[in-house]
What we know:
Shape of chain A: globular
Strand content of chain B: under 5%
Largest sheet of chain B: 2 strands, antiparallel
Distance between the termini of chain A: 47 Å
Oligomer: heterodimer
Number of helices of chain A: 12
Shape of chain B: globular
Number of strands of chain A: 2
Strand order of the largest sheet of chain A: 1-2
Mean pLDDT of chain B: 89
Structural class of chain A: mainly alpha
Mean pLDDT of chain A: 87
Number of strands of chain B: 2
Amino acid sequence: MQDYLVSIILTAGIYAIFALGLNLQWGYAGLLNFGHVAFMAIGAYTTVLLSMNEVPLILAVPAGMVLAGACGAFLGVATLRLREDYLAIVTIGFSEIVRFILLNWSSLTRGSFGLYGYPRPLEEMIPHEDYNLLLAGVVIVVLLLVYALLEILAKSPWGRVLKSVRDDEAVSVSLGKNAFSYKVQSLALGSAIAALAGSMLAFYLQYINPNNFQPIETFYAWIMVILGGSGSNRGTIAGAVLLWGFFSTTRFLEGYVSLSPSASGALRMVIIGLVLIALMMFRPQGLFGRKEELAVGK
Amino acid sequence: MNTMIGQLVANGVVYGCIIALAAIGLSLAYRIMNFANFAHGDFLTLGAYFTLFFAATSNLGFPLACVLAVLATAACAALLDIAIWKRMRSSGANRTAIMILSIGVSIAIRNALIIFFRPDALRFPVPVMESINLGGILLTYFQIAVVLIAFTCMLVVHSILSRTILGKSMRALADNPNLARITGINVDQVVRYTWMVSMGLAALAGIMLGLVTHLNPNMGWSIILPMFAAAILGGIGNAYGAMAGGMIIGLAQEISTAFLPAEYKIAVSFAIMIAVLFFRPRGLMGGT
């Protein structure tokens, strides 16, 4: 039971970090990133590959964040001068391309065999069977740090400009703000946060494989952000807890319904899809969000 | 070497026809509804599985099952318009909200198909045909049929857009919705017919994809990248651009396999899409 609880804390915590990165992009800046999982994959693989080549983790984790941030900035530069849908289309394509490259560049990534046996932080300090407890602590600390950073940013001049760009770009441009540059920055920072979540995921799973990074992971983050309330960091964390709560309670219920494992997994996803539809139709501000904070209200 | 390139060109035309049909629907819907529909790929899948269902549960024969499937998919599109899209339009929701919603539709359809048909790959109940040899280039009758049907559809779309009242109303609506409304165009009806045409074409593209490869619940979602790349390359919103874009993407992906490992052909779409956005964001033929 304790193991189970720890694993829920780990997954919910890691996905909360992941979703906080998206909230910075979508909730704060109104950017449609439909390929968030790509940046998680870049973080996970960069960290793991560097650390397998003797680079200390204290450098390998930030390296993944920098690479993911640079990719995010590149996609932003390519699309953000155009209509907002182009970013959505390009990022969704990018997440597929990243997965294909990870699958097919076997000499580097071992393809679908995946990577394992890589170093994890503070590993030698604690017996193997207690490691997840320690990692859960690390994840919670990282989550709180990211949360604090985003809250400070939200109240800083930078965050206020970002929100003003989201609400009315023309006004902020007329005040001399470079809206394009603010959007690229939020895309880069949000992508770097996704990469950090990716490194944590790699430490937790002990084995990474390109199929950990399917496009659906991106939309888990979307559900978390929208369910909790776009623009609210606390709401996003609540959304992560709610979604993983849903996953783990439905897993318990699986024993009582006569469905094959693939069918019950798919049923769960049908529910997720319907929840997303219902939220957008009836409560786009989510459970804890404020309607005036919403980039879709315009 | 020449026959190898010829074969790749032939494969590219077949694949390009499928992408083009899918992209025309995507672009039409984009033009009229003003948003990128991320569930478009799943309507390809829906069309293919409807065909499978009709072919397996009745003795209508495969061609009639295809026709029924296209009609059934168009009916689903109309229902979805009534249940969701119309409400979103009249509540004044903007296109970002509708795009996020379309992701929900996509997830729901794809997984509903997994529940009903299992996740495994399936084939249509049609005989396996030997390829015929056209000067060293091997093609199956299905591939030839795909090309003929796709070109017929493109002609039909062209006639609808240029010759019919519906086509004129669609163009009027795309250019200026308010003006279209005050001139007496029934906007809701035109939008609904556009959805039905768009999704009917998607269903046909899905059937073709199933004929030349196989069916699985992910088949439509997995070509969302070449589909959007084709629409953007042609100029998103421009149906003729989507035809050209689909053909170019299909050819580029197949011919690239002569130089690159085949696994990377989807990256060719992505590279073309990024290059278009950097250098010619309105596409080759000018979009909305």
